[in-house]
Amino acid sequence: RTQREAEIRVDGFINARRNAALWAECISASDGDPVSLYLTHRGLDGPVPKHLRLHPAMTYWHDGQSLGIFPAMVAPLIAPHGRILALHRTYLTRDGRKAPVPIVKKLTRTADVLAGTHIPLHEPQDGVIGIAEGIETAQAAWLASGVPTVAAYCANNLGAYVWPMNVKRIVVFADRDVAGAKAAQTLRNRAVQSGLHATIMTPT
What we know:
This protein has helices at about 1-25, 35-40, 135-145, 155-160, 180-195; strands at about 25-30, 55-60, 65-80, 85-90, 105, 130, 150, 170-175, 195-200. By secondary structure, it is an alpha/beta fold. The model has no long low-confidence stretch (mean pLDDT about 95).
């Protein structure tokens, strides 16, 4: 067990270095680039959050083979203490469509356990934060409601979300499926037990 724990620490260190190098290759999104066009095609007009960046030319690997080079929307999964633990990648075409690849959205290898991490699309305002599973859902929730919203990446991570110390109210924008509803209720219960006001919003 001691040997395995040491191997995990080494793997985490290597993954952290690789993710840092990949993040350093990304640039801020700008009007007319693949990231802004992708969000527009998804009906998500408005400023691109600063933590959604563009990698101009990322190699797509599948089953150990390179299937080409594509632009990608890259977002960090950040732990409560502020460390980047993984990068979420959405492979795109030059005109902002989903790339013709087997799996459009991929996660890098992680530097540590992801429970409690989130993609910080927006900062809390007046003690209020919203959270949704996916990047696009979170951005849509912000545009529709004005509530600053972050993305959890997946249902399990939504249920384990660790909110900032200054938050007093959480709005959970839940996916309309069994896993999404269960995760939303888990987070709401945790928030209420901690003395916060929490609301679950579900789309029709």
